[in-house]
Each structure stands twice: as structure tokens, then as C-alpha cells.
Design a protein that fits this description.
Blueprint lengths: L1 H52 L13 H38 L5 H23 L13 H33 L1 H22 L10 E2 L5 E3 L4 H48 L1
Helix pairs in contact: 1-2, 1-6, 2-3, 2-6, 3-4, 3-6, 4-5
């Protein structure tokens, strides 16, 4: 049965990844193109300032992959691989949770458990990390701090996921003693406290490019457009909502199909025994 759940997760992840990539290609990619255009324009302005001040310019190396390859093949493969990984994570989480819930409360609908896994997975794996470190388009962020930023984002993601798992365990253990609402509230508050502590301990990054000025203080190139950052983040959130929604719905449908086939097989076995 566990293999069937993993297969359902991979199938759901594949479908969700394809749909997510299509959404990103239509809505997010134009914002990325605007960010790259800004970066190129700012680079030209910086070169002009360096030339005017008599400093030499060290040109950047050519891109290994063309922009077309990056936005199509690269983004497509990356999105699908990420969605497949989330599909496996989803299936494992469902299997563990259903093994406990299905045994303790047999009348529970597995689709309800699927919905809970989808919601909590979205919050833990994307929502909280995004709240702490919102996504930014290219050209936003200092190249010198990319390692530190990546490490901080990975840290808050791991803390969020682990804290969510512990919160679910605590809520289930306290359910009989406190009731469903109270146990969920206690576990939720504990989760938020852990996230607040982690956020306070992790570094903050404010690296949106400011207007470029010459030696006289005059602005020669504007700062990064706030509208592009806003649109990019809105579409990034929407894209993840689409991915997790499709992942949850397809997985729920697959679980229902598995359940029907299992029931039919059991019925045929009983009938043949008679």
C-alpha cells in the first residue's frame, strides 16, 4: 500500500509541476525579464560611471546557457523536479499520518487527511519561509551574500517543517485530553513560538538596489522598481498555491481510486471464498 501512496505522490507531483511551470512561464517570466532588463541597464550605467572616473571595467563572462534555455528547459526541469520531490514528501506525510488517524479514528475520510497534509505542507514548506524571506526577482540581492541568504532560507525551511511535524504529533497526543480545538490551538501556538525564535536568530537582508548616483550625488539610474518586486511576489505565492492545490486534489483522487480498487478486490475475495 505504501508503494501505491508513493506512486500517487509522484503522479500528483508530476501533474502539479507541469501546471506550475505553465503558470510561471506565463506570469512570472515577464517579471523576471523586467528584472534582467533592469540589471543590464544598471550594469551599463555603472560602466559609464567607471569610464567617466577613469577606472577600468572588468567584463563579465558569457552565460553558459542562453536565456531561452534557462526560461524553458531549465525552469521546466527545475519546477517538475521540485514538484516530484514535494509529491514524495506529501505521500510519506500522508502515509504516516493516515497510519495513526485511520487506526485511531476508522471513520475518518482519507481525503480529509489529504487536505490537512496539503494545507500544513503549504504552510510549513512555503508559507512560513516566504514570510521570513520573501522571494525576489533577479538583480535583487548582493552576490557576496548569496551563500548566507541560501543558508538562512534553508534553515528556516527545515525549522518550519520539523516544528510542524512536532506540532501535529502534539495535537494528536493532546486531542483526547483537551479536545480537537484546544489541542490544535496549543500545538499551533507552540509552532508559532518556534518560528518567532528562529526568525529572531536568523539574519535579515535588505538588498534592494538603491538609485545609482554619480560623484555629484545626481541620480543616473533609478532604484529597482517596487512594482516588479510586488508583482513577482504575488505571482510566486499564486504559483505555489496552484502547485499545492493541484498536488492535493490529484493525490486525493488517486487515494480514492486506490481505496475503491482495494474494496473491490476484498469483495471479490470474499465472494470467491463463499
Amino acid at each position: 500500500m505504501e508503494r501505491k501512496f508513493i506512486g500517487a505522490g509522484l503522479c500528483a507531483g508530476l501533474i502539479a509541476g507541469i501546471i506550475s511551470f505553465i503558470f510561471a512561464r506565463i506570469f512570472i517570466e515577464p517579471q523576471v525579464a523586467k528584472a534582467i532588463g533592469y540589471e543590464e541597464g544598471r550594469g551599463a550605467a555603472e560602466e559609464a560611471l567607471e569610464a567617466a572616473s577613469g577606472h577600468g571595467h572588468h567584463g563579465e563572462g558569457a552565460e553558459v546557457f542562453t536565456r531561452s534555455v534557462q526560461e524553458n528547459i531549465g525552469a521546466g526541469v527545475g519546477t517538475v523536479v521540485f514538484a516530484l520531490s514535494m509529491g514524495v514528501f506529501f505521500a510519506v506525510a500522508f502515509t504516516v499520518l493516515w497510519a495513526y488517524v485511520g487506526r485511531r479514528w476508522p471513520a475518518t475520510d482519507p481525503r480529509a487527511v489529504t487536505a490537512v497534509v496539503g494545507l500544513l505542507g503549504f504552510i510549513a514548506a512555503f508559507g512560513v519561509p516566504f514570510f521570513v524571506y520573501p522571494a525576489n526577482p533577479p538583480a535583487v540581492g548582493n552576490d557576496d551574500t548569496i551563500g548566507e541568504r541560501s543558508g538562512a532560507f534553508l534553515t528556516i525551511t527545515l525549522v518550519s517543517v520539523i516544528a510542524m511535524v512536532i506540532a501535529v504529533v502534539v495535537a494528536l497526543q493532546l486531542r483526547d485530553r483537551l479536545g480537537g480545538l484546544a489541542s490544535t490551538t496549543v500545538a499551533g501556538i507552540g509552532y508559532l513560538v518556534v518560528i518567532a525564535i528562529a526568525k529572531a536568530l536568523l539574519p535579515e537582508f535588505h538588498e534592494v538596489p538603491e538609485p545609482l548616483k554619480n560623484d555629484q550625488g545626481a541620480i543616473v539610474f533609478p532604484g529597482f522598481p517596487g512594482g516588479v518586486i510586488g508583482d513577482f511576489r504575488v505571482y510566486a505565492i499564486t504559483n505555489q498555491v496552484v502547485l499545492w492545490t493541484v498536488l492535493t486534489l490529484v493525490f486525493a483522487a488517486a487515494i480514492s481510486a486506490i481505496g475503491r480498487r482495494t474494496t473491490d478486490a476484498a469483495g471479490e475475495l470474499v465472494a470467491s471464498a463463499r
